[in-house]
Amino acid sequence: MRSSAINQRFGARSDWAKPLPSERMTGDLHGRTLPCMKPGAVAEAKPRQHSGARIVLAHHEAGHAVLSAALNDAPHQVSIVADAATHGRTTQRMIARPSSLAQVYLAGFAAEHVLRGRRPRQLDQEVGFSILARTDPELMKAFDGAELRDGHRAIGEVLRVVQARTDDEILLEINRLYDAARESLGSVWPAVQRVASALVEAETLSREEMFAAIGRDDIYRPVFVVQARHGLPIR
Predict the structure, then answer these.
(1) Do 167 and 1 meet the contact criterion of CB atoms below 8 Å apart?
(2) pTM for this structure?
(3) DSSP secondary-structure letter at 136?
(4) Domain 3-29+48-229 adopts which CATH fold?
(5) Residue 99 has pLDDT above 50, yes or no
(6) In contact, 128 and 6? CB cutoff 8 Å
(7) SS3 content of the chain, % helix, strand, coil (to 5)
(8) What is the residue extent of each domain of the chain?
(9) Exposure check for the chain: N or C terminus, fewer CB within 10 A?
(10) For position 141, what pLDDT does the model report?
(11) Strand ranges (E), the chain
């Protein structure tokens, strides 16, 4: 696939000049702003309100966390507290099969998709950039930290097991695993929502707090059913 065709499919490269994540998992909401009060306005006593960006970020990280717990390793921490490099992060060991790890990397975008009803544009940008960088190593060097983005890491896992010769073959496998991740999260969506709600309130959850939010929901069997339907091995 030519570079021009990939540019048309995935958008301009200028988006990649923004800050990049430093953690295994990240909720990346660059370019979105939080609402603020007008100068001189006085806050009324009412239930705490949360911005749309914060809610999306919480679902992004909850998607990583829940799918990792089901297919890989339960996170030791999930957070939506911003630092110098990222808006949020989910940290855990990455010990499962490449097909499962790729889904864990894609799960943040998949959760956003279930929440909002559309595929996040940033996913396609990250995947498109990484595909371009396969044949242009200098491109990756030009954007410090680009190799740490979820889309790039998902492609890395795919290339560990799929001998893809063309860009289209890589995209086909990424899309297959993305669909499996999205459907898996959809099958346990109430658990994802509860983890996201807990994140919105507490901002950071330990492993124990995440499972407390999940409660008695089975996050394993429904996910395994989806994986089997897609012909994917478990762990």
Answers:
(1) yes
(2) 0.78
(3) -
(4) Methane Monooxygenase Hydroxylase; Chain G, domain 1 (1.20.58)
(5) yes
(6) yes
(7) 60, 5, 35
(8) 3-29+48-229
(9) C
(10) 77
(11) 25-26, 77-79, 89-91, 204-206
